[in-house]
C-alpha cells in the first residue's frame, strides 16, 4: 500500500479478455482488502487460482499464542528476551517464536536455517520482518524481492509466498499485524502521496520484480493460516504462474537506514520515529543520528509513565546507552503501569553527547501485551532487578 505499480502483461481494461500466445484465456484474480472498499491489486494467472484440492488440516507450524502459566496473576515486571540464544534448525515459517501478543499483533523472533518446502499464506494478518542478520529472496505471486540485513520486509495478509534463504546466519524480528499494517496517516497527502516532510519517500521502498518464472523450484503445496489454524491445499500446477499484475497491494522492502530521523534542540518523543502503524500500535525506527543540541539538553530518553502503552524494543546495533546488559538481538518489554526509563547512571552520562549510533525497532501498543510460554526459555530472569544497581 505504498503506490500504484504494474508489471508484466495486462489487458487494456480490468475484467476483460486476456489470452496467451496459444489463444488460451488468462485468469484474472482480484486481491482486495476491506471487502471491495480498500486497496487492491489484480493478478493474471495462467491457471485458475481457485483450483485446488480439499483442504487438509495440518499441525501448527509454530508454537501457539499460549500465555505463560500464571500470566494474568503474575507480577508486573520488565522483561528481556535473549533471542540471539535461539538455535533451532527450522524454516522461515516453522521457526517463528511468538514472545508477546494481544488481539492486534504478535511479536516474536526467528533464526531460520532451512527453506520451506511449501508456499505459505498468512490469512491472520500482515507479516512484517526486520532482518537483523542474513537475508534471501521473497518469492510471491508478485515476483521476486531480495532483502538483507537492515531491511524491513512487509508481506500483506494472504499473499502466497515462500522465502529462499541465502547462506548467511539468519536472525529476524517478526511482527504479525492482525489489524493490518499501514503508513502512518500523518505522512500522507489527501491524495495518498507521501508528504515532503515525511521521514521517507516513495523511492525508499522496493517492490518485487516479475520474471517469466517466479519460482525456480516450483511446488504445488500451499499451507494457509487462518484463526490460528493451519490447512494444506494441493494444486494440480504451480500456483506461481502470474504473468502480470497491477495495483497497490504487494510485498515491499524498506531499509531501516532510509528512515530520515527528526532531531530537535531538546528531546523529542518516540512518535517522531514512527515508521509503520497498525490498528492499535506504532512501529518506530531508531537509526544513527545527531542528538539534542540545545543548551543543557539531555539526549538520553527521560524516565516516563506512558500509562496507556506497552513498549517493546528490538536492539539491532550500536551502543544502547540507556540499557545495561542489552546486546544486538535482545528484545525488551516494558509494560504500562510502572515507570520505565534508562538504567542508573545512563541519564546523566548522556549529557554532552552529540551523536548516537544505535539502531533499534520499537513498538508501542495500546492494548496490553501478554507473554507466551514459548518465550520463557529465552528470558533473562533478573532483568527487572537491574535498575536497583
Question: How would you characterize the overall build of this protein?
Answer:
This protein has 389 residues and is an all-beta fold. It has 2 domains: 56-77 and 88-209 and 217-239 and 250-256, Jelly Rolls (Sandwich); 258-381, Jelly Rolls. Helix content is 1%, strand content 34%. It has one helix at 346-349, and strands at residues 5-8, 27-32, 40-45, 56-58, 79-82, 97-101, 105-110, 119-122, 126-133, 136-140, 143-147, 151-155, 161-165, 171-177, 221-226, 229-234, 242-247, 252-255, 274-277, 281-286, 289-290, 310-317, 330-334, 355-356, 359-365, 370-371. It has a 7-stranded antiparallel β-sheet, with no helix packed on it. The chain has a 6-stranded antiparallel β-sheet with strand order 5-23-22-25-20-19, with no helix packed on it. A 4-stranded antiparallel β-sheet has the order 1-17-3-2, with no helix packed on it. The longest helix has 4 residues, at 346-349. It starts with a strand and ends in an 18-residue tail after the last strand. The model has no long low-confidence stretch (mean pLDDT 91).
- Mean pLDDT over the full residue set: 91
Principal-axis shape equals: globular
Looking at CATH, the homologous superfamily of the largest domain is Jelly Rolls
Q: DSSP helix count?
A: 1
Taking pLDDT < 50 over at least 5 consecutive residues as the criterion, the unreliable ranges are none
Overall tally of structural domains? 2
CATH class designation of the largest domain = Mainly Beta
Second CATH tier, the architecture of the largest domain: Sandwich
Kindly estimate the percentage of residues that lie in beta strands according to DSSP: 25-35%
The helix content, as a percent range, equals under 10%
Span between termini? 47 Å
Quaternary:
single chain
SSE pattern, N- to C-terminal: EEEEEEEEEEEEEEEEEEEEEEEHEEE
Amino acid at each position: 500500500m505504498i503506490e500504484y505499480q504494474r508489471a508484466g502483461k495486462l489487458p487494456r481494461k480490468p475484467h476483460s479478455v486476456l489470452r496467451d500466445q496459444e489463444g488460451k484465456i488468462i485468469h484474472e484474480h482480484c486481491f482486495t482488502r476491506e471487502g471491495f472498499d480498500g486497496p487492491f491489486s489484480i493478478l493474471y494467472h495462467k491457471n485458475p487460482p481457485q483450483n485446488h484440492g480439499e483442504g487438509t488440516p495440518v499441525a501448527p507450524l509454530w508454537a501457539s499464542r499460549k500465555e505463560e502459566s500464571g500470566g494474568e496473576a503474575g507480577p508486573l515486571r520488565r522483561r528481556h528476551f535473549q533471542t540471539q540464544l535461539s538455535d533451532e534448525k527450522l524454516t522461515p515459517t516453522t521457526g517463528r517464536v511468538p514472545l508477546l501478543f494481544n488481539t492486534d499483533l504478535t511479536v516474536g523472533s526467528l533464526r531460520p536455517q532451512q527453506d520451506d518446502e511449501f508456499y505459505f499464506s498468512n490469512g491472520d494478518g500482515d507479516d512484517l520482518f526486520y532482518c537483523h542478520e542474513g537475508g534471501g529472496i521473497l518469492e510471491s505471486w508478485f515476483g521476486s524481492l531480495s532483502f538483507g540485513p537492515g531491511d524491513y520486509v512487509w508481506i500483506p495478509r494472504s499473499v502466497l509466498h515462500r522465502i529462499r534463504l541465502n547462506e548467511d546466519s539468519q536472525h529476524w524480528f517478526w511482527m504479525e499485524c492482525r489489524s493490518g499494517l499501514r503508513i502512518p496517516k500523518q505522512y500522507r497527502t489527501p491524495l495518498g502521496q507521501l508528504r515532503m516532510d515525511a521521514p521517507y519517500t516513495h523511492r525508499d521502498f522496493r517492490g518485487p520484480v516479475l520474471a517469466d518464472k517466479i519460482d525456480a523450484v516450483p511446488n504445488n503445496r500451499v499451507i494457509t493460516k487462518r484463526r490460528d489454524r493451519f490447512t494444506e491445499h494441493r494444486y494440480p500446477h504451480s500456483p506461481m504462474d502470474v504473468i502480470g499484475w497491477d495495483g497497490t497491494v504487494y510485498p515491499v522492502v524498506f531499509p531501516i537506514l532510509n528512515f530520515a530521523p527528526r532531531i530537535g534542540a531538546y528531546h523529542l518523543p518516540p512518535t517522531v520515529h514512527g515508521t509503520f502503524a497498525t490498528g492499535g500500535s506504532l512501529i518506530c525506527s531508531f537509526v544513527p543520528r545527531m542528538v539534542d543540541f540545545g543548551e543543557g539538553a539531555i539526549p538520553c530518553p527521560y524516565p516516563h509513565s506512558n500509562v496507556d502503552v506497552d513498549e517493546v524494543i528490538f536492539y539491532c546495533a550500536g551502543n544502547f546507552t540507556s540499557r545495561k546488559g542489552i546486546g544486538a538481538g535482545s528484545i525488551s518489554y516494558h509494560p504500562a503501569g510502572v515507570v520505565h526509563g534508562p538504567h542508573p547512571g545512563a541519564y546523566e552520562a548522556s549529557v554532552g553527547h552529540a551523536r548516537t549510533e544505535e539502531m533499534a525497532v520499537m513498538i508501542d501498543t495500546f492494548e496490553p501485551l501478554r507473554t507466551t510460554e514459548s518465550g520463557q526459555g529465552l528470558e533473562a530472569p533478573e532483568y527487572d532487578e537491574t535498575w536497583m544497581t
